[in-house]
Design a protein that fits this description.
The complex is a heterodimer of chains A (about 120) and B (about 110). Chain A is mainly β and about 120 residues long. Chain A has no helices and 11 strands. Chain B is mainly beta. In chain B, strands 2, 4, 5, 6, 9, 10 and 11 form a 7-stranded mixed sheet that branches. Classes of the chains: A mainly beta (about 120), B mainly beta (about 110).
Chain lengths: ~120, ~110
């Protein structure tokens, strides 16, 4: 059974860069069928996709955050990562990693990690 | 960018009753639409993709319909475990993948 697990800091300071990693187990991140993405959810609010990455390293960022987002993938470790720079209070959210197909929704999700931006 | 609008924001339903949730896209997304269920403190769960195909393990009381700009998620007979927030999401010509604002289904 596929499992995803987010890891990284739960507290970041304003203006710093957030770095999160998603470790995939029970399946290969090198699947040619799947994309690996990041979704966030501010407390009490809705879902926002940050972007996705393919096993080849091709990235697909949300244009609203494109200037701040960088994603990478390490197939040898079965991991993919998110960097989000210039963090502000509005970036406080639960960050989820997930898997999706080109023609479907996210069918597997990590448990999420609450990241708080505060000095 | 396509905007996904869900209505109503909150739906009050008694157990055993039928619930009908709506999702509207600002432009056609064909049938490239998914529905999710999210319970407090949990990650979303994929219910429907392709507007009407149930994901693996999803009970038959959940059904999706629609195409283009108008979509509906129907829960035929609400069970206690179905009270949650439901989101639609399109994946037509992404990025970005856009979610609707959600509908909370609460006990009446």
């Amino acid at each position: 059974q596929l499992q995803l697990q987010e890891s990284g800091p739960e507290l970041v300071k304003p203006s710093e860069t957030l770095s999160l990693t998603c470790t995939v187990s029970g399946g290969s991140i090198s699947s040619s069928s799947h994309y690996w993405g990041w979704v966030r959810q501010p407390p009490g609010k809705g879902l926002e996709s940050l972007g996705s990455i393919y096993y080849t390293g091709s990235t697909y960022y949300n244009p609203s955050l494109k200037s701040r987002v960088t994603m990478s993938i390490d197939t040898s470790k079965n991991q993919f990562s998110l960097n989000l720079n210039s963090m502000a209070a509005a970036d406080t959210a639960v960050y989820y990693c997930g898997r999706h197909l080109n023609w479907s929704g996210f069918d597997s999700w990590g448990q999420g990690i609450l990241v708080t931006v505060s000095s | 960018e396509i905007v996904m609008t869900q209505s109503p924001a909150t739906l009050s339903v008694s157990p055993g009753e039928r619930a009908t949730l709506s999702c509207r896209a600002s432009q056609s997304v064909r049938s490239n639409l998914a529905w999710y269920q999210q319970k407090p403190g949990r990650a979303p769960r994929l219910l429907i993709y392709g507007a009407s195909t149930r994901a693996t393990g999803v009970p038959a009381r959940f059904s999706g319909s629609g195409s283009g700009t108008e979509f509906t998620l129907t829960i035929s007979s609400l069970q206690s475990e179905d009270f949650a927030v439901y989101y639609c999401q399109h994946y037509n010509n992404w990025p970005p993948l856009i979610f609707g604002g959600g509908t909370k289904v609460e006990i009446k």
